[in-house]
Amino acid sequence: MIYSFQGYIPVVHESSFVHPLAAVTGNVIIGKNCYIGPGAAIRGDWGQIILEDGVNIQENCIVHMFPGKSIMLKESAHVGHGAIIHGANLGRNCLIGMNTVIMDDAEIGDECIVGAMAFVKAETIIPNRSLVIGNPAKVVKQVTDDMIAWKTKGTALYQQLPADCHDSLKEVVPLREVPETMKIQDDVYKTLRDFMNK
């Protein structure tokens, strides 16, 4: 669902996918190969929100800000299920864990990993390549090359997802029983621990 607000109309590149159950409002610019999941709300009613190429905003995320602020989610930023980004900027190729809250004027550096359910206070500056966890969130160590390789591979799946959704996602009537020919999807991605122990 795409809404204009006070004359601002969202700009969405044709290669990106905004789920019909997501809401994108106002001064929002969405680059190439971005995925916006169902239940996500991206509200550019009070300021501009820019999603650079390859960003994903997963199910039930919120992106918003105080009036007069503008924010940017840089290339390949990855925002996990249920996270809230309120007036914060996200660096290139960072990972924001599920149900994390990042508050106003916070700056998340490039290639950071912010753990699930972290709370990043307003005006916090997180240096590049930091691993961040907790409430309040703290830097606990540096992100390794292996960790960022794992993150980048996961984000690549979400960068392919818009094309897959354009090709195959459609509203249907549910089946009433499981077909005998139903297969389980391929194992194409592993947890970080399994990735490190490959």
UniProtKB/TrEMBL annotation:
The keyword Transferase applies. GO terms for molecular function: transferase activity. It comes from the Bacteria. Keywords: Transferase. CDD domains: LbH_paaY_like (cd04745). This is Transferase hexapeptide repeat family protein.
